[in-house]
Specification:
Helix content is 10%, strand content 43%. It is mainly beta. It is elongated, with a radius of gyration of 24 Å.
């Protein structure tokens, strides 16, 4: 097991070490999306598990060579009878995200996405290496 407490000379850093010690205990595995990445000859295929989210609750963006997948939902459930004192209200808020580095040469229109049965399937083409252009010198 990794030792989360580290000896430091700064007495104020004790609180930072204390917080770091308890972080793994309270960290949730649901904070990030689980993904499988496969490589083919022409592209990368990423299957991201997003159970419980609908298609409109998933946002995919590409910025500065990073592909961001963000899933969020806020649901409210209310129950109770009109005119009675007892009333129940339930609010559910979920947020998960995952980030992949795909490189600066990939454009948003090159990425294909499909959502089916709680699995988001992304197809990202491999960046083709740019060959140096030959330039010829004109002969006079």
């Amino acid at each position: 097991m990794k030792n989360y407490l580290q000896r430091q000379s700064n007495p104020i850093s004790f609180f930072d070490a204390f917080d770091e010690f308890f972080r793994p205990v309270f960290a949730s595995e649901n904070d990030y999306l689980k993904a499988n990445v496969r490589e083919t000859d022409n592209d990368y295929q990423i299957d991201v598990a997003v159970p419980g989210f609908s298609k409109d609750q998933i946002k995919i963006s590409l910025e500065n060579g990073y592909l961001d997948i963000v899933c969020s939902k806020n649901e409210q459930e209310e129950s109770g009878k009109e005119g009675t004192v007892s009333y129940r209200r339930k609010e559910i808020s979920e947020y998960s995200s995952r980030r992949f580095h795909v490189g600066d040469s990939i454009k948003q229109e090159d990425i294909k996405a499909k959502y089916e049965n709680g699995i988001l399937c992304l197809t990202i083409p491999k960046a083709q290496p740019k060959l140096p252009e030959k330039s010829y010198i004109a002969i006079e």
